# Entry
Amino acid sequence: MRVLAGCVAMVLLALPTSNAAQKAGTVKLPAGKGKKSKAAAESKALPELSTKDSFVTGLLSGAVAGTTVDLVLYPLDTVKTRLQATAGAKLSMNTFRGLFNGVAPAIAASAPCAAAFFGAYDSLKRVLTEKLPDEYASVAHAGAAAGADLAQSVVRVPFEVIKQRVQAGVDASGRAALASVMKSQGPRGLYRGWGALALRDLPFDIIEFPLYEWLKSEWTKVKGEKLAPWQGSLCGSVAGGIAAGLTTPLDVVKTRLMTQSPGQYAGIGECLRSILKEEGPGALFAGSVPRMTSIAFGGAIFFGAYETAKSIISVKMEERATAATAAAASGKKK
# Structure
């Protein structure tokens, strides 16, 4: 059912876009300064949705964006994983073989993970920005990102474990990886590295999303009108690349824990100490170039797809709500 959400969103994207959707991207901001006036103008640029509709819109838009970016950038993610999983790994012909190994579990996880994240993110951001003063907007965005990350990690971690074992060559297929983990470690093995994943992704999202929202806000002020989807995608690319570079050491630790032999590391602390002692600080930045490249490029694709899908779906949901209200009013008159 979660994967079906991504398919539903794609169908919605294929539907004709109304004039309202086309006009949504060109609404001028009012003259004058202040965050309240800007926020009011932006709220008119897209239909005002209920909390429930905001959640559904984020869920569907996230599903479309997540599936798209994971499929396009999977080869770079494979190269990054292979460089991180083995001590002293160097680029070679073997690094570039079977770049789509493990893609099935990754794509199966894309829609539900992204849907869970953005469904939670949009809802939490809406609540927090209403509760907090304007000057704490970054805090609201960081809090929403942290809560959303925890929500999607429940779905993501088992798929991530299986995917990375196949990418690193530990197992030949997703099915073999699942069988191997269940046999040697039991169900808990599917959540091995959860702490390291949270340790990487929470700082990443707390850096990326406030930076993304800030870049959009500042560009909107300069431009004087709502940003086009491609401009939002550029903001996402810059924010993602910066966040990726700063959190690469955490990603290395997460990869080692997820691809380790049983009992190799007792936890995050031992893994980190072992890398520093045996390989040096430089090993914590293994795979940083493909990681930053893939996430920066992925940010452009992801946020572009997300903003486009969100704009279209928001308009269609508002049209549906308006039609339902009109039908109800007509029924009362009769």
Remarks:
- Confidence is low (pLDDT under 50) at residues 1-47.
- The longest helix spans residues 288-333.
- The radius of gyration is 22 Å.
- The domain at 49-319 is CATH 1.50.40.10 (Mitochondrial carrier fold).
